[in-house]
Structure formats: C-alpha cells, structure tokens
Amino acid sequence: MHSFEELSKEFASRFSTKHFPSQPVNLYGPADYFLSLGGKRIRPVLCLMANELFDEMNPDAWYAANAIELFHNFTLIHDDIMDKAPLRRGMQTVHEKYGMASALLAGDVMLVVAYDYLNRADATYLQKIVKVFNQIAKEVCEGQQIDMDFETKENVTMDEYLHMIKLKTSVLLAGSLQIGSILGGAGDGNQQHLYEFGKNLGLAFQVQDDYLDAFGDPKKFGKQVGGDILANKKTFLLIRALEVANDVQKKEIKDLMQSNTEHKVERILSIFKSCGVDAWANQLKEKFLEESLKQLDDVAVLSSRKKHLMDLAGALIQREY
Amino acid sequence: MHSFEELSKEFASRFSTKHFPSQPVNLYGPADYFLSLGGKRIRPVLCLMANELFDEMNPDAWYAANAIELFHNFTLIHDDIMDKAPLRRGMQTVHEKYGMASALLAGDVMLVVAYDYLNRADATYLQKIVKVFNQIAKEVCEGQQIDMDFETKENVTMDEYLHMIKLKTSVLLAGSLQIGSILGGAGDGNQQHLYEFGKNLGLAFQVQDDYLDAFGDPKKFGKQVGGDILANKKTFLLIRALEVANDVQKKEIKDLMQSNTEHKVERILSIFKSCGVDAWANQLKEKFLEESLKQLDDVAVLSSRKKHLMDLAGALIQREY
Predict the structure, then answer these.
(1) How does the average pLDDT of chain B come out, rounded?
(2) Residue A293 contacts by C-beta under 8 Å, 6 or more apart in sequence?
(3) Does A116 touch chain B (CB under 8 A)?
(4) Can you tell me the distance from the alpha carbon of A100 to that of A102, in angstroms, rounded to the nearest whole number?
(5) In chain B, which residues have pLDDT < 50?
(6) Which end of chain B is more exposed for a tag (fewer CB within 10 A), N or C?
(7) A93 touches A106 (CB < 8 A)
(8) Which of A115, A128, A133 to mutate against chain B (most B CBs within 10 Å)?
C-alpha cells in the first residue's frame, strides 16, 4: 500500500503523457496547455487509494484515475468560461489565451477522452463505474448551475448552500473514492462508507476554504484574503452571519454588500467575529471531519489499511485545537 | 423491418419523454427547450435501421438511438454558442434565450445523459459501441475546430474541405449506422461497409446542401438562397471555382468576397456557372451517392433487407437526371 504522496508522485508521472493527438492544433493545443498548468491531482489519487484499500492495485484504477482528472479539468475549463475568470493557477485561463470557442471545444473533447479512458477498464466493473461517473458528472453540472443561480438570489439558506457545495465539490471526491473501491471489488456497504467519507471530507474542506478566505494568514493562503467578501460571494460564513446577526449588523452587512468602500472587508470580518462566525465555522469543519472519519472507520477492512486515507484527511483539513 | 418513416415516427414518440430531472430548472429547462425544437432525427433512425438490417430489433438500439440524438443536440447547442447563431430551426438558440453560461452547461449535461443511455446497453456490445461513439465524438469536435479555423484561413484546398466535412458531418451518420450494426451482431466487414455507406451519403448530402444554397429554388429550400456566398463561407462550390477559374474570374471572386455589393450573390453565381461548377457539383454528389450505394450493396445480407436504407438514400439525395 502507498501513501498519498507516493501515489501522487506516481500518478503525476503517468498522467504527464500525451492524452490527445497533435492535430488540429487549435483544438488539442488548448487542452494540452490547461493540463500543463498542473494541480494537486487529489481526486485521481483518492480513486487509487480507495482501490488499494481492498487489494493489490487493479491496473484499471489508473484508467479511472485519468478519467477523473480529465473530467475535473474539463469542468475547470468550462467553469472559467462561465465565470469569466482571467487566471487559473496564476496563469491565463484557456478562453483568455485561445478564445471562448476553442476553450469550449477543448473542454468538450477532454470530457470525451475521459470517457475513453473509462471505457478501457475491464468489462467486469465497467458498467458500474460509468454509472457512478455519470451520476457525479450530472451532479457537478447541477452544482455549477445552482452556484450561478446564487449570484442573483438574495436569500440563500444554509441548506441550499450545503446542497450546492455537496454537488459542486463533494460528490466528485466521494465518487472518485467509490469508483476506486468498485474496481477493488468492494461491496455496496463499503462503497457507500467511502462515498460518505469523501462527501464529508469535501464539506469540511469547503468550510475551511471559506474560513481561510476570510481569516487565513495572507502569507500562507494562496489567494487574496477577503476575496469572497469583496465579490459578495455566498459562503458558509456569510450565510451563517446573516442567520445569527442582529438587525443592525444585518443591515450593515447588506449595505456593505451594495458598496465597495475601502473598509468593506475589515468591517464585515468584524461583524463575523462579533457573531462568533469564526468559531462556529471551526466547529462545523470539525463536525464534517469527524463524520468523515467515522465513515472511514466503518469500512470493513483492517484498520491498518486505512492509515493512509486517515493521514490524508488530516493533512487536507488542519485541526486547530 | 420498417421504413425510415415508420421508425422515425416511432423514435419521435419514444424520444419525446423526459430525459432530465426537473431541478435545477435553469440547467435542465434550456436542455428541454432545445430538444422541443425538434429535428429530423435522421441519425438515431439510421442506427435503428442498421440494427434491423441484421435481425429483429435489439432493444438496446433504442438506448443507442437516444444517445446519438442527444449527442447531436449537444453539438448543435455548443456550435450555436461558438458561431454566435441567433436562430436554430427558426427559434431562438439556447444561448440567446438563456445566456451563454446556461447554454454551455445544458450542452455538457446533455452529453453526460447521452453516455448514460449508452451505458444501459447490455454488456455484450457495450464496450464496442462506446468505443465507436467516443471516436465519432472526438472527430466531430475536430471537424468543428477545423471549420472555425477555415474562417480565417485564406486558401482551403478541396482535400482539406473534404476532410473537415467528413469529420464534422459524415462520421456521425457513419458511426450511427455502425453502432446500430454492432448491436445487430454485425461482423467487422459489414460494420465497415455500413460506415462507408453513411460517410459517403453524408458527403453527397453536403455537396447537395452547398449546391442548393447557391442554386436551389428559394420556394423549396428552407434557408436564404445565397447565404453561404454572402457569408463568404468556404463550400464545395467556392473551393472548386477558385481551383478552376481563370485569373480574371479569380480576382473578381476575391474582390467580391472583400465587399458586400448588391450584386455579390448574382455575380458569384454567374462565375460559378461559367466555370461549370454547378454541373461539377451534381457529378460529385452523384459520385458520392454511387459509392455510398456500392458500399450498401456489399453488406452481406439479403438484398431485400436493404431496401429501406436504399430508399432513404434516394430520398435524402435527389437525383436530377
């Protein structure tokens, strides 16, 4: 069995191959460019780790891992178009560099190539893993649409936000683990525990991401701190604050969201703190992490085999107590 | 066995079902809208006809037919975004009606649902049909990119144009037939003959389409006659004319393409005629149709079983002699 770091290295090496033909260059060039920007490759490695949990690695898990990573990159290329994002990982997004039409089409063909990798898996589990993959893919599209809907929706409840995050972020982590486990011969129960492990881990990660965007150390956090606040983005923190703040605070938050005054970030952070949103977020993250680890605990394999997945959860989610 | 019309009616009836959940409405509403615009459903019916050529209909052919039609509609939604087309079948395109982001995502999810239908096919042929489907899907993306590249490419040769049309239009017809035949238990040889039948039929159809855009009867032709000429679109006719015209004619064509004078269509048509491009196009169409029918003839089943496909070819391609 291998650690996240070991599989990550091995996957990165295997994934840095040619996934596309060279012609037409205006189609496959943009696709190659985007993959060259790299990434943490967490999802494919989750698939590999879940697979190794049950037995020696099934070689088909490498195909599934490729498919998952290509699918993830397809969603990023298309999300960047929809969000009009200029940068991704500090580099030009595909539509900025090559135009919208080529970015759209490069994403499309990347999704097809993802299915091509899946289809190389042995017939034993093929239909099952494609079914899970399709379900994830639909849900990720749904999550993206709901996220876009939120931009113009005035009141987003915590339940609605949780549902959106689950679809947009969590199900891909969850499904990557499930696909890996199917290829490892896991039964329905173990598949489901791993799915729930991933789902809750994803939720914990998102709470942490929202938290760090507001309260993170600018030196350690990769992005601009307060970016979500400046963009009026609905986050765990904002939605919670609007739930628990008093009327004066609520009005101030809503006024600040209408404006872009110099002290916007500072003022909103101050309200977050006086409402105890920071402590609440840490508790919520902890709750999801605990549920996640409980689900992993329930997977019916020797505890020693789960060590690497536990380590990974700990590394992704920093515990602060 | 059933005629094109019979299967077309039956497919239309079965296809007019709910392919998507109802929520989120901003994702699935645009997808439903586009499917409601209708279409001739030629590709799925080719799949069904090829299937019936070999035996009683395999029920899985209906799933494959759905997948093919959804794939085709996915490409139309995305092509319309790329081409900034305002109308499709006389109605607003998806991006015009719902915005670019929703159109992009509706296309994405439609492709996923297409794969979901494919994945319901019995394991016997699943891997084979998905392999063909993926190959087609990649080639259609390639064809669309090459077509976009042509917009800014000054000299497009006949070979390059043929290659583009093959990818953008023909392979989907060809592959639909091949997928149907695989599900009918056809061997490689018969699959290949049906593929080539569809490919050549597609080429004949495109020659006819280019011809009718220039020389069609405005009363019978659904679109504005001369539309390709006004848009400076590379077509079989234009490329041929630039190959065979004398220097004076060539210069006049190029000058007319730079301008948008009142007599542009009339002048270019006149040059087409003096170069004999109209007669040449009819011969070329005939050549592709003959090759197409020859390939159908080579399919090793009783001639009587091929009647419906022959009739269809004749109906799609009007013979004028």
Answers:
(1) 95
(2) A197, A310, A313
(3) yes
(4) 6
(5) 321
(6) C
(7) no
(8) A115
